């Protein structure tokens, strides 16, 4: 079994929203995933499966889209990938709640930085299938626009660290 982390994009998973965390867990179980658990009400779910990452992504998106009645995008990583993303954090000395990893399905284009607008003090680094952004204390007022981010979902680096630890612990059980 492989431990996976799925990060949902554009789905309200609060207690009063379209998708309750308990429903998210139930839908993951209905999709055939094992040892399902959610982490904070922002669309993070951990589980295990024997299927490939691509199959897991398709199954989860199909299951959730049918349940909520609209398309759902899930960015999926293995426990090992989450650990690598956490270790690759280019801003370890920054405020981790004010820095994010934007998760993408594919690697960002090498020229991705050229398409970014509204940048002032923010620092940006490209990862394997992520874009790291340190807002340098400007998160609330930033005008930063990253075109590739519309296809992904962001998590602050505190959340990334916690998900990496939880997924890594799951993969050792």
Please characterize this protein's 3D structure.
- By secondary structure, the chain is of the alpha+beta class.
- It has two domains: 2-82 and 162-172, SP0830-like domains (Alpha-Beta Plaits); 84-158, no CATH class.
- It is 29% helix and 25% strand.
- The protein has four helices and eight strands, in the order βαββαβαββββα.
- The strands form two sheets. A four-stranded antiparallel beta sheet has the order 2-3-1-4, with helices on both faces. A four-stranded antiparallel beta sheet has the order 6-7-5-8.
- A hairpin with a 3-residue loop joins strand 6 and strand 7.
- The chain is globular.
- The chain starts with a strand and ends with a helix.
- The mean pLDDT is 92.
Architecture blueprint of SSEs:
Blueprint: E1 2-9, H1 21-30, E2 34-39, E3 44-49, H2 53-68, E4 73-78, H3 79-87, E5 99-103, E6 123-126, E7 130-134, E8 153-156, H4 157-172
Antiparallel strand pairs: 1-3, 1-4, 2-3, 5-7, 5-8, 6-7
Helix pairs in contact: 1-2, 3-4
Distance between the termini: 10 Å
Provide the CATH topology of the largest domain: Alpha-Beta Plaits
Structural class comes to alpha+beta
Full CATH superfamily name of the largest domain? SP0830-like domains
The tally of domains stands at 2
Helix content range of the residues, please? Answer: 25-40%
Shape: globular
Report on the biggest sheet: 4 strands, antiparallel
Q: Which CATH class of the largest domain applies here?
A: Alpha Beta
What fraction of the residues are assigned to beta strands by DSSP? Answer: 25-35%
State the strand order across the main sheet. 2-3-1-4
List SSEs in N-to-C order: EHEEHEHEEEEH
Under the CATH scheme, which architecture of the largest domain would be assigned? 2-Layer Sandwich
> How many E-type strands?
8
Could you name the ranges where pLDDT drops below 50 across 5 or more consecutive residues?
A: none
User: DSSP helix count?
Assistant: 4
What is the average of the pLDDT values? 92
């Amino acid at each position: 079994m492989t431990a996976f982390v799925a990060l949902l994009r554009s789905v309200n998973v609060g207690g009063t929203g379209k998708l309750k965390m308990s429903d998210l867990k139930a839908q993951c179980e209905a999709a055939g995933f094992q040892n399902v658990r959610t982490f904070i009400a922002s669309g993070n779910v951990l589980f295990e499966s024997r299927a490939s990452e691509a199959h897991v992504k398709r199954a989860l998106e199909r299951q959730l889209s049918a349940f909520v009645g609209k398309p759902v995008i899930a960015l999926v990583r293995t426990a090992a990938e989450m650990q690598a993303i956490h270790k690759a954090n280019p801003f370890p000395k920054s405020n981790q709640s004010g820095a994010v990893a934007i998760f993408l399905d594919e690697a960002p284009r090498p020229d991705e930085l050229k398409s970014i607008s509204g940048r002032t003090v923010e620092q940006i680094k490209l990862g394997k299938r992520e874009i790291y952004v340190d807002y340098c204390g400007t998160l609330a007022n930033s005008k930063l626009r990253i075109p590739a981010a519309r296809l992904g979902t962001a998590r602050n680096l505190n959340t990334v660290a916690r998900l990496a630890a939880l997924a890594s612990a799951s993969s050792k059980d």
